Amino acid sequence: MSAQALKQDPPMAAVVHEPGPFDSWRSSELSRTSAGEPEWLAAVRAAAAERVQTQGAPTSKSEGWRYTGLRALLEQDFAPVDEPLTALLPEDIDDVLAPGLDAHRVVMVNGRFAPELSALADLPAGLRVSSLRAELARDASALAGRIGAVAGEGAHVFASLNTAGLDDGMVLAADRGTVAEKPVELLHLSVGMDEPRVAQPRHLITLGDGAQVTLIERYASLGDALYCTNALVEIQLGRDAVLRHRRIQVESASAFHLSGVYLSQGANSRYDGINVGIGARWARTDLVTRFSGEHAECDLQGLYLAGDKQLLDYHLDVRHGLPRCTSRENFKGVVHGKGKAVFDGLVYVAKDAQQTDAEMSNRNLLLSQNAEVDTKPQLEIYADDVKCSHGTTVGQIEPEMLFYLRSRGIPEALARRMLCLGFAEEIIDALGHAALEAYVSDVVGRRLEAAAI
To answer: Which of 152, 242, 281, 326 could pair covalently with 5 via S-S, beta carbons 3.0-4.6 A apart?
Structure first.
């Protein structure tokens, strides 16, 4: 399958700024040694490093970062993870597992594959799961041209940083016609170290024609350490392939989280993606979709819960460049305390993308006067035979509904929790796995109980 590389906006002029911690992070990544790397990977890194130098850090004047304050992130002095953490035992991660979830499991600790914590012994025929480092060591030539094949240069400088400093990740490949009965769980686990660290995993997901896989991608932490995750996922779906992708972010309350999912869909393929953002002090997720074949379907849903002093930010870029493709975007948010959420969604329909069917919805609940939501759903349409719509709402809990529950003896805090869970239920139920639904519902419920409302 041919994949359309995702091209970035025209490069910005070099940014001149005073030296600071961001420069330290940048310099440490750009100086990462590449001894023993294949020439093609060294060239990919070098090109990304050059882009980083040119792009500089975004500012509030950058359109894609207008509502996303970067000061807290840029003040940190993150260093890359140099050595794998090998002291963990399987029982040490029991508290972060989703009870009852039966899945093949890949565990990455601080961005490095941890085979002793993973469970990949019974993979079905036609499904291969490995670490990026292992695949590069085994046959680096097989990955030539894969890194950046879908993401291109990425959406911003942090994608370039990931490419310049990529260290490990997961490589998942499903052969033509493979149907995986059990899901694959990719657990990113962060553990505090002596100094703040940045992990930059790079994941390559390829489904052959007619393959069907469920991938559950989770971000969690042991403890409340300060660290940064800067992950990038590249997905290629062949003709008639189906990927059910669940992404659950419950990072440390002190953590910073950046992730980008770059998707190329072949003809008649289906991508069913659900994103849940609950943790981290500061988090931004970019979801970028391109269609490389007609009659493809992309379904993006999301639920975010931003509490006091949290920023959760979702950016969608869905581009219909071919006729007769369908996309659905449905995101819901609950914001309380002094929390802030950003939803910036774009659906672009090119002139030749006739008979496109696209719907975008963003609905939000504000539980306090100091909570903030910046929502910007956008349709950019150049074709004339389309069916497209978008809408957004920002509101509060209906006083009548709260009064009804309280009049029946339910305490106010519990009544608010019940109403918020009812609002979020549509997204939670769509996860499609009872154990995962129960896990997310429990985490959301506990966060709401402790909410500063």
So the answer is: 152
Sheet holding 184-191, edge to edge: 112-113, 104-109, 184-191, 212-222, 242-249, 270-277, 297-306, 326-335, 357-366, 387-395
| Closest by CA position to 358, among listed 347, 345, 350 | 347
Please state at what angle helix 157-165 crosses helix 39-55, rounded to 10 degrees. Answer: 150
Q: Give residue-wise pLDDT tens across range 311-368.
A: 999 999 999 999 999 999 999 999 999 999 999 999 999 999 999 999 999 999 998 8
3-state secondary structure of 395: strand
* Cβ neighbour number for residue 430 with a 10 Å cutoff: 15
35 falls in which pLDDT band (50, 70, 90)?
low
Residue that the structure tokens 């493809």 belong to: 296
Distance CA(146)–CA(139), nearest Å, equals 13
Which sign does the torsion angle of CA 83, 84, 85, 86 carry?
negative
Structure-block tokens of residue 129: 């799961």
Using CA of residue 339, residue 328, residue 287, residue 205, what is the dihedral sign? positive
pTM reported for the whole predicted model: 0.92
Instruction: Give the 3-state secondary structure of residue 12.
Output: coil
DSSP-based three-state secondary structure for 172: strand
